[in-house]
Amino acid sequence: MIAQLVATNRPGSNTAKVAAHVAEIYAAKGSPLHIVDLHKLPPEIFAPTSYAEKPASFAPFQEAMSNASGILVVTPEYNGGFPGVFKYFVDMLKFPETFSGKPFAFVGLSAGGGGAVRPVEQFSTLVTYLRGVIYPGTVNIPGIHGHLNEKDRLKTPEIVERLEKQAEGFIKFVEKAGK
After folding, report:
1. pLDDT digit string, tens, across residues 78-88
2. Whole-prediction pTM value?
């Protein structure tokens, strides 16, 4: 099972909109994603005591990440980096076993022209430290507002095609890594 990590807790985010479209692509390819949406993190995880003892409500998040055979990260760019809640989430997970040896793929999006290149590079460094394996097929989407239609779906054929190609490649990459 591939987990899709929606790497922001902003309600109604463009990241969640893109992630929903990406999940449809994977489902159509026979590989439904397990969605891990940081918008749904339990508030008690942010208590300082959570570092020492995780609240029971965090267990489904840990289980999803631990049981994933691969992780697809959909991240926005906030102020030249990935959201702080994303790093906090990673810090709450068991180390190193949660990510060790797991394949990672990235979809980055931004309002500006960068397409979340910086956040993906930053998190790629962290993935290497966490002993994950990076799939070499990131999809960056700059100027996200111009690529969503009135139904909050991606409308640019070239981007959808790149996401389709990434999905095909990442599914195979995860299968090979599991052997």
Report:
1. 999 999 999 99
2. 0.95
